[in-house]
Recover the amino acids of this structure.
């Protein structure tokens, strides 16, 4: 990646065909645009203004000395050169991320800092508070940093070294060490006034057959969310999914707005008693586990529990 300084003679990182090596930031923007194929959408996704986004892409093309995109008033397409760059840019960004994560991990180990991830309401659970209090009592010099994770990042954050351990919900993939902390039933989260609330009994899975469920974005958590939504159903029927969300707050908002329903841990009934939301008991489903998770290579994280 580009480094400061240089004489421009080709021996200091400057490209013979353009104005210098691309930055990691520019490659990230290019990858976002390659997925969205829309400058406005890609800019919003990367949280920068569209003019600034366009300038960075133009600067990237100038540095590379090639046209990466074909632009028109209606659409954006990758040129053959842009398509050829795509896997290389992906590998470069991933390598930069791995380098940053390795450095951060080493800094945390030296400084005694422990980064603990959590999804949704897991940070507020009694078992989480008990474990963290016990760890702090045993390690008064250590600093515990809590990091909220969206659904799609919960396992990747562990594997990538962004967090040292995480409080998550089952099921978790192979290669992750876990300590089960609790088992609890699922409840169905519905909009206030939903017809399911008028049943004089717990909700059965069959009562949900024709309902739309809020989905979770990200292929990496497809199997995880299928488990939570019981997809497919025992009779082989596929669940009907509505909007896809990235985190618990967005999920609850989607339910409150009538865009779908969700099966969630029973503890959320007490933690999120919000206007526009209601919860109903569900029968016939196995309980779900809460767990502390870490990579097997991080044996020191076993001491958190």
């Amino acid at each position: 990646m580009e480094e400061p300084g240089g004489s421009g003679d080709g021996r200091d990182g400057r490209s013979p065909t353009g104005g210098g090596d691309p930055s990691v930031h520019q490659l990230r923007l290019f990858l976002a645009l390659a997925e969205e194929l829309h400058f406005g959408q890609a800019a919003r996704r990367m949280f920068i203004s569209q003019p600034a986004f366009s300038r960075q892409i133009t600067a990237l093309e100038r540095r590379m000395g090639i046209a990466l995109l074909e632009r028109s008033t209606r659409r954006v397409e990758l040129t053959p050169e842009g398509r050829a760059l795509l896997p290389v840019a992906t590998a470069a960004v991933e390598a930069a991320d791995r380098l940053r994560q390795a450095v951060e991990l080493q800094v945390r180990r030296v400084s005694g800092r422990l980064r603990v991830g959590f999804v949704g309401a897991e940070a507020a659970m009694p078992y989480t508070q008990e474990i963290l209090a016990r760890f702090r009592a045993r390690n008064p010099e250590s600093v515990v940093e809590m990091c909220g994770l969206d659904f799609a990042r919960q396992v990747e954050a562990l594997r990538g070294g962004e967090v040292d351990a995480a409080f998550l919900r089952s099921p978790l993939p192979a290669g992750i060490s876990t300590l089960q902390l609790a088992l609890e039933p699922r409840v169905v989260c519905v909009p206030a006034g939903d017809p399911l609330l008028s049943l004089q009994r717990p909700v059965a899975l069959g009562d949900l057959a024709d309902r739309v469920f809020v989905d979770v974005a990200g292929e990496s958590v497809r199997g995880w969310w299928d488990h939570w939504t019981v997809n497919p159903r025992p009779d082989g029927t596929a669940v009907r999914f509505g909007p896809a969300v990235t985190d618990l707050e967005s999920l609850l908002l989607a339910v409150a707005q009538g865009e779908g329903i969700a099966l969630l841990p029973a503890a959320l009934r007490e933690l999120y008693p919000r206007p526009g939301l209601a919860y109903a008991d569900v029968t016939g489903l196995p309980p779900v586990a809460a767990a502390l998770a870490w990579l097997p290579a991080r044996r020191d994280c076993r001491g958190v529990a």
